[in-house]
Amino acid sequence: MYLINKIKELAASIKLEILETRRHIHQNPELSFKEFETMKFVSDRLNSYQIEHSTGIAGTGIVGLIKGKNPDSKTIALRADMDALPIQEQNDCVYKSKNNGVMHACGHDVHTASLLGASKILQQLKDEFEGTIKLIFQPGEEKIPGGASLMIKEGVLENPKPTSIIGQHVMPYIPVGKVGFRSGAYMASADEIYMTIKGKGGHAALPENFVDPVTISAYIITSLQQVISRQASPKTATVLSFGKVIADGATNVIPTEVRFEGTFRAMDEKWRSHAHNSITNIATSIAESMGAACDIEIRKGYPSLSNEPILTERARTAAELYMGKENVVELDLWLAAEDFSFYAQEMPACFYRLGTGNESKGITSGVHTPTFDIDEDALETGAGLMAWLAVEQLI
Length: 395
What we know:
Layout: H1 2-13, H2 15-27, H3 36-48, E1 52-57, E2 61-67, E3 75-81, H4 108-124, E4 132-138, H5 147-153, E5 164-175, E6 179-181, E7 184-187, E8 189-198, E9 202-203, H6 213-223, H7 226-231, E10 238-246, E11 253-254, E12 257-266, H8 269-289, E13 293-299, E14 305-307, H9 309-323, E15 328-330, H10 340-344, E16 349-357, H11 378-394
Parallel strand pairs: 3-4, 3-5, 5-16, 6-15
Antiparallel strand pairs: 1-2, 2-4, 6-16, 7-14, 8-12, 8-13, 9-11, 10-12
Helix pairs in contact: 1-11, 2-4, 4-11, 6-8, 9-11
């Protein structure tokens, strides 16, 4: 228990610093792959901690190393993402975003601040553990192809090669002071669907003279739900949703084409591939049968995320020691996606959730909303627990 108590003591001692770090990043959000000032800020902090690191990985990423005793014996990695979202913040707080139309609405400011806090703790404890801890500050999680995939291509998982990787993400639906874990399948793949239905426009009062892409599009969108209701196994969590439809006509004008966009989510890679073919075949055949043409593009995004069971159960047990068993909860399947899944395809990975909600304080908004915020008491837990999970893998 000595190390747990020491980490808790250090986390408490730098709580204000972690809070100030989070607020600075929150006030100065940057979109995916444009995190230049964030990269500089993180680099300056790592320099102040005397942690060796490299910048400019995949454009704006950072990789640092903390070397314990016998540094070549084993390496584990910790990851935090740094990018923000194109959302106008509606919170009224002293740390409100200064950048118009850009907001840390997914908690990446928390992730980065937590890893910086953990880094400072781990640097002070480097004589207490064997091996090396690799710190990955990643750009572009919110934008395909995902900063994780690009950093991997640039060798972030080499020299030294980690044996495992751990990542943390905020969860507003878990109360502050608690964390969540789930072994095995956890998050979905995410693919983007872009479709254009090309018909023949005309006067709305003369239907014999046009091929109506609006009606055809509506029929296709409705019919595609059979991919979920009639082809997917009930055991396979999957979602197909269309959130954008552009039919640029008028009350009495039928447009020549309709464009619409959607997302497909799945937990199984084999089913994912089959569904792509079904979506394409159904949409194309319906359009052609009604005299129109269908252009369809399915952009493959992040793969599904699976937490390696042995690593995850070890991390869960370590979290219970650090926080108390009553403060560690089981996570449900989550059909959102995360590019941390790319790391999970390369090595054993554990992606867990940090509780940040507090109903009594009115902190209940979900991620990706203009009113998202956290109970900042979570920052001490975020930094301390991440440091302990790393050390526990190496002692």
